[in-house]
Amino acid sequence: MYFTAFVAFFPVYVNTIEGVKYVDPVLHRAAASLGATRSQMFRLVTLQGALPQIITGLRLGFGMAFLALVATELLASNFGLGYRIMEARNYFKVDWMVFGALMIGVIGFTLGSLIRLGETRLLRWRAREER
Question: What does pTM read for this prediction?
Answer without folding.
Answer: 0.81
